[in-house]
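Q: How would the structure tokens look for this protein?
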Amino acid sequence: MTAAAQTLNDFSLIGMDGKSMPLNQFKDKVVLLVNTASECGFTPQYEGLEKLWEKYKDKGLVIVGVPSNDFGGQEPGKKEEIVTFCKLNYGVTFPLSDKTVVSGQGAAEVYKWAGAQAGILGTPKWNFHKYLFSKKGEFVDWFSTPTEPMSEKIVAAVEKQLSE
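A: Here is the predicted structure in token form.
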């Protein structure tokens, strides 16, 4: 299968339970994949991600948080600590993967593929980089770290994908 023929549905992450988290379980859903960190200046974006999830989950949006220690060592905790932090501080209920490498040669395959789709400017440069995928699992767009989850840009892109 060529990279161009792949979709998000062809990849898996490891879930917080230590088991495979096949992304095809979100087939026919719009997916926002976000690399996260608990000790980052952008960590309060968890609140916006949860608001976006709550607003659109019943309409077909799935947010997948992907904790990563790639940038600034800002996700040093173990999976149990990450889950507890997210729930206690931000009320996170959207799916989270286990800690994952999202940049460079060691990046998870889904991040290598998404980065190839986004181009060099669209690869994660810091925590809270966001990738948007269509209901068919096709790459749609990327949003840089400072782009707030409830920003007009992200909300409009999500709504457009949900309507297709």
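The beta strands are 12-14, 20-22, 30-36, 61-67, 130-133, 139-143.

The radius of gyration is 14 Å.

Upvote if useful.
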